Amino acid sequence: MTTETTPDPKHIPLEAPAEPLDTGNGSQDRRRCLIIRFGRIALALLAGAIAALAHPPFGILPGLIGYPLLMLLSERATTTRGAFWMGWLSGFGYFFIGCWWVAEAFAVDPAQAWMAPFAASLLPAGLGLFWGAACALYRRFAPSGVVRVMLFAALFCLFEWLRGHVLTGFPWNPAGATWAAGSAGSQLASVVGVYGLSVVTVASVAAFGPLAGPGRREARIGAAFVGALVLVGLIVFGSVRLSSARLTLTDTLVRIVQADVAQESKWTPEAYQGIVDRYVNLTARPASALPDVIVWPEGALPASANSVFAAGAPEADAIARAVSPGQTLLIGLARGEPGAGGGPDRYFNSLFALHDEGGPGLRVAGVYDKYRLVPFGEYLPLGGLMNALGVRSLVHMPADFSAGARPAPISLPNAPTVQPLICYESLYPGFTPGGTGRPRWIVNVSNDAWFGRTSGPLQHLNLASYRAIETGLPVVRATPTGVSAMIDPWGRVVQDQRLEPGESGVIDARLPEPAAPTPYGRFGDLIFWLMIAGGLLSPGLAVLRSRR
User: Fold this and answer.
1) For residues 216 and 378, what is the distance between their CA atoms, to the nearest angstrom?
2) Among 4, 128, 141, 180, whose CB has the most other CB atoms within 10 angstroms?
């Protein structure tokens, strides 16, 4: 039988005792306990909230101090359970600020609007479990001394990686993406990826945490000095990389179409014809040079490919007239196909490459099916259980989408080979080949119209731009309502070529040449895992060193 023991001196309690202190003044003791308890709760929520505000579009970088604050709250909890709640509360604050925009999607349909507050609170509550688990493990195994900084960063970022992979994952706003894509601070992602950049970011700022704790003064100051040095090195590395960046434009002219069609205005026959007309007119807009590739966003037309491409469909004829001979149209549409062996039909979220060869109609030159689907948006995790609980009827999903094959580049008749990423897939590193089979560019089509003029589309642009930094490839991004942009291989928007939320128009831009292959493109998350291993082993190595 095991019992909780008195915490060692490095665990300075910040939580209320289980029983009021016996000082002869019970009311004052209870008041003190409540103040301590609610103070801890407030600090935990504050740690997560300010860390979230460090991300674009807020960009309040001093908010990074939330990570050392979380480390201190975890290690000073008197129990591992207390540390879990510190982590969970911080995670709730972080994801509530970072993901509140999901509620906007439920407001599109008045019948589902009642679910918006639940979505805005249940999502951060669930994601906060990963932070809670990381902090509980840290409290359980944290050693004395400044070496604990490395263990905290390793455990925290390990659970961030798990957050990005469990049940297909939700890798929204990892700590490394705090640095605005294209800035000096973001460029280390070309070597270690956004998860590796998370380790460097969390470890360097957490190194300031020991300043507020016990231990030798020289060691605590030394840890903070090393953390500051790493942050300076991060900025210097990125500045040098950007100073040597040479943007070269190819002859391939791309037109990005953003029609600014709000999600709630798509669902009537009258609206449908107007939407077709807007996209067709923007596609055919005269320009000084004829675009080689035209990109429409995911969900541009509220119809399936089966109906759009049906024989005699008026929209098919209108689209064909808008596309000139020699041009290729990339368009995101859902499609259905009969199930094998008479089974149920299957549905895919797809990107079609339609080429005009000068004859009647458009030829399908390539199809890419979305591989990483959105939980509760495109499929129900644990579908049998969810069906039994009636969740499918609540989220209005008559059937799940099917996942396509693992992402692979597709060839185009009149443009370099491209890697498609549909919406949510742009959050994931590692989907684009960096060695053999490396494409020349990435196209990201997304339907951010679900989230209106919130912070969501702006953060999505930042996260998608990290795929350019990691791979050294330009990214063409098209959305119905913003933000659409041409992004260079260093994660920067090319010459302000972007359409903001609420804008309608086109971007005609020359496709940039790729940068040289990046270390991350070649080795993937190898360096990240080496850093995680080093951080997890650091307490044992410190013990061995102290025994010499």
Assistant:
1) 54
2) 128
